[in-house]
Structure formats: structure tokens, C-alpha cells
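User: Sequence in, structure out. Go.
Assistant: Echoing your sequence, followed by the C-alpha cells.
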Amino acid sequence: MSSKVKKKIQKLKESSTLVINEKSKDLISKGKKVFQFGFGQSPFPIPDEIVEKLKKNAYRKEYLPIQGLPRLREKISKYLLTRTGNDYPKENILITPGSKEAMLLIHLAFNGEIIIPAPGWVSYEPQAEIGSNKVHWLETSRSNNWFPTGKELEKKIKSINKKNNLILILNSPNNPSGTVCNNLEELARVAKKHKVLVLSDEIYTDLTFSNEYKSISKYYPELTFITGGLSKWCGAGGWRLGFLAVPKKLTEFLSSLKSLASESYSTVNTPTQYASIEAYANEHKQYKLKVRAILNAVGNYVYTNLKSNKILIAPPQGAFYLMPEFKNKKYKTSSKLCEAILDETGVAMLPGSDFGFKPKKMLTRLSYTDFNGTEFFKNVTNCSQIDDEMIKKFAPNVVEGVSKLSNWAKNL
């Protein structure tokens, strides 16, 4: 039967983030206490006013334009203009079933090669493989906040056949490291010099703890795609509403993406598109302020209670991830390390090898969202006063899991 499936598809595995979520739930159903630090999902409730819009539009059943509801695209265009200073007109916005699908469409249409800084999200490489685009990993270091320097990017570009088109994928705040890129202008300069396209994955940018929306498109708008959506800042992952903003110079590229969309998912579900107008029409400042404050406080609690001479870790700057490195000679690969940690402590994490690092690099991804976000959100009245006692009360699984992980590491 395997001969009936294309070889490149046979090689694909299920997304590790989804697999760890299912594995954790399976272990829990068997009575094991599991600390779910493997799956990156917002724990917070969707803002009430957005939910109300969904309810009011639940009766809608008509097909919408392939490219998406014009009013929604207009609101996203204004949202990006406010944050990046760049005009991505509504005609250049494509509504997709999650930003993940937007990126897949780019890979399917693009004819060239892909540069992915490691660490990079688990689906970047498999999507490139589906699109038959060769991947070049660019390993980064903690010293530069887990992002490449301009010199490192230029060296990588020059090592690749210059005849080929290139896309650089950039994700800040980053999944899996939780860090923010501080040298966007430098990277933009190199990309511009070599006419490299940039895919800026900005799904977490509204969750930057400094409350600064930093986009490489500010410095290189002419060849920068932007993807975003509702799954992270809005807590609406299951709604599957994302967008792709295409630079004006690449309008022909957009035409091909629309053709692919028309022959695959047709259009994103109608009620969600209408509800999403509310998501992008208003700032939701108080909601975002509270979400960022909770994540920042919990992230710093984890960071403070894990860092040691056995666990190297950078402080959280955005999203809801940390990337601990375990100094040890006992385990041969980060995958074996994570298996042992899950077996011996119940803490589920993902290995660094899932994010582009060499297997022997003892890095892991820790998502600190294993708590009841609705309860925590409801009980925060002052965003500047989220202390350890509140974290212990409203994020007990995080506290207990971190304690188990810290104690386990002492014996390495």
C-alpha cells in the first residue's frame, strides 16, 4: 500500500506539537499525572464581544469570496498599517484557515529554497518538503537571543546557489524560545541586498511582553509576507482564522495563492470571518494587557525557578515558551532526554531536535500554559501585582511541574 503514497509524503510525521498533546491526554486518561508543557495553546477565554459576534452570525451559510470578507480584510489592513507603518491594502490580504495554511500555500506556490533559523517552528520544514522546496537550517545561539546575526545570514545566503529564489522565515516572538529578535533592521538590510523574500510569522507579536510590535516589514516592506491570526493573542486556535499579507510587488504571487485556495479549502467559514471583524476592528487593549501580564509573570516564575548550573535558560520576552538546555552526559539526544523526563516526572516537553537543532543539543521547548486561563484571567484586577502567591493559586500545575523538573535536574 505504501507504493500508492508519494515518497515525500510517506516521510512526513504527524506534527510533534499535536502528537505530544494527544500523548499527554492519553496518559492522563490512564491515571498518570502529566504536566502539559509540550503543547502551545493559549489558555485564555476569547474576548466576550468577539464571541457575541460569532453567535449573532452563526446563521450565515453563504460562501464568501475566496480571498475573504472584504470588511475583514480592510480591518486587517488597517491593523497592520497601525503596527508596521506599511500599507498592505485589503486587495493584498488573503484570509486563510489559520496562519499555518497561509504558510503552506506559500510553500506550494514558491519555486526556490528556504532558510529557517534554528530554532524554528516544527511545521516550517515539513511544509517546505510538501512544496518540494529545499531547506537550509541556520543554527543560532543564546548569545544573540536565538536569532541569526546579519553576518550569519549573509554567509548562509552566499553558501546557497545564487540562481535560486530564497525565502527567509522569521518568527518573533519565537516559538520555541520565547525570545524577541532585536536585530531586524540588520537582517532586513542583508535580505534586501540579496533580494531574499521574507516570510514574517507574526502570530505571537501581540504577545510581546514589552508591548512593542516589531516587524521586519518596517525595514523591508517590498518583499515581506506577513502571517497572523486569532489563535494566540485571542485564544481562538480552534476557530482556524488566519491571514496572509502579500507585498504589492508580489501581486502575481497572490493570484497563484488564490488559485490554490480555490482548489483546496474554497473559503474560510463564514460566521468566523464576520466575528473576526470585531477582533481586528478594535484594539482590545485591556484584554491583551491582562493576557500579557499573566504570561509574563508565569514565564518569569518558571525562568526564576528553573535556571541553575544544570539548566541554562533565557528569560521570557513574548509568547508562552521557554527553551531550557540541560547540561548532562547521561542522555545521547534531546528526544531521549524528553522521554526520560516524561517517564520520571510526568513533565511533557518537546525536544530541540523537533525545532531544527542537532539531536545531541540538549535543548527542549517548555510551554507554560498548563493552567485554567479563564479563572486566572477573571481574578486579575491589577496587572502589576501578579505575584508568586497568585501563580501558586491559579497555575498550580505549572508550579508543581517546574518543581519536579528542577529537582530532577539536580541529579544530572
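User: And one key feature?
Assistant: The mean pLDDT is 93.
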